[in-house]
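REQUEST
  id: r-88c1
  op: predict_structure
  target: HAD family hydrolase
  payload:
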Amino acid sequence: MERAAVFDVDGTLVDTNHLHVTTWWEAFRQAGHQVPMHAIHRAVGLASTDLIGHLLGEDRDTDQDAGLSAAHKALYGQYFDRLPALPDAGELLRRLSRDGWKVVLATSAGGAELGALRRAIDADDAIAATASADDVAAGKPAPEPVEHALELAGVPAERAVFVGDTVWDMRAGSRAGVRCVAVLCGGLPRADLEEAGADAVYADPADLLASLKESPFA
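RESPONSE
  id: r-88c1
  status: 200
  body:
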């Protein structure tokens, strides 16, 4: 029977979380908002509109949302040619693919951003499908991104493992009924990830690769 390995991308396979923090901070600053970087860091992983609402509140001027998202996208786009993959990210995907797992990416990125992330990972030969933010009505922590990834893989939740780096990832995976693995390379505390539903926690893709025989992928 087929199995699915579903991966978040930002902070999980590519070392981009702090780039997102800096570029969101600058986008907010340009629009007249002083938002602490630590607050932005904990919101990374949410879709753009949800991140803005989480940080500015539901009573904000929502007419600014599109401009804030566009500013962040333009600022972050300056790094597309040099996004750094995390250690052994590509090799982890290739190993799982060789072991018979259908590897699917579940990310809020799309378009040119997703292309830049895939170039950084450099493992297109191992990636069976990608579920992007454009494909679902609600982003993480809603389960839809993970559920859509499972649909693309043609695999039921009980035969899937989801790997992510944020509490939003863990909540989305838990709500989708899959086993959740967390990595610490996104910068969030182990306790927060475990409380949000992580079944196992590893330092980064290299640590998970080295521990596959004892992991939920065993």
